[in-house]
Each structure stands twice: as structure tokens, then as C-alpha cells.
Amino acid sequence: xxxxxxxxxxxxxxxxxxxxxxxAVLRLLKTAIKNRQVELLRPLTEAEVLEVVGRQAKxxxxxxxxxxxxxxxxxxxxxxxxxxxxxxxxxxxLSPEELxxxxxxxxxxxGASTPKDMGKVMxxxxxxxxxxxxxxxxxxxxxxxxxG
Length: 148
Description:
Hypothetical Protein Yqey, Chain: A, domain1; Arc Repressor Mutant, subunit A
């Protein structure tokens, strides 16, 4: 079953179960996917759908940071619950050990040795593990490997 079909099926199930929060999150996700289809003027591939889901999850993470910084824990908690729903549709994230191994491998493959080469390494890791790694985490790890 494709991820789009799964989202649709779970949307209907949540709607019938009157799970308002899940319905709202899935409705926003379906709309984001549809908007991306309209932009590209074609159906999306599985990778593109995962990219949209990842973008939605990233928005939630950023909102959580901002709401927490502003002391609005009620809104941060709501965003946390929405993020948990979105994580069901994302591939399993790399463990810290797997991420470190991927960065070391990318550094070796690209021949990076200075912080100036950070872009090459970032690109290699992000493309190899699309949707399974957080860019900020990768950036911090790459920086520490190339400077220290």
C-alpha cells in the first residue's frame, strides 16, 4: 500500500472514530500533498510524498521550539501530539551510531578535510538518507568531525 493510500485510509478511519486531532493533522497533510501535486502538475512519487511529510514534521518541530521559548506549553504540547501523528508516516530515523557512521563514510567518500567541505558532506549524507535524518543534527555532527 502506498503512503498516500495509507494516509487516505487512516483519515477515513479517524473521521469515523471522531478523532478530531488526527483528522485535522491528516487533512492538513493531504492538503499539503495535493498542493505539491498542483505545483508539479503530476502525481507525486513515494519519495516526494515523504518529503512533504518531512516538511510538515519540521514545521511542527520549529513550532514546538518557538512555543516553548515563549512559555506557551499548551500550544507546544498540541504540536508535540501532531508531530507524533506525522512520525507514523516517516521512515525510521537513523540511530546516533548509524548517523555517525554515515557522516564518517561521507567524509571519506568526498575527501573532505576542512570546514569548507561541509556542504559536500552534508549533501552526500542528506541524499543517501533522505527523510531519515535531521539536517540540523547532521550539520552539527559534520562540523564537529571536520573541525575537531
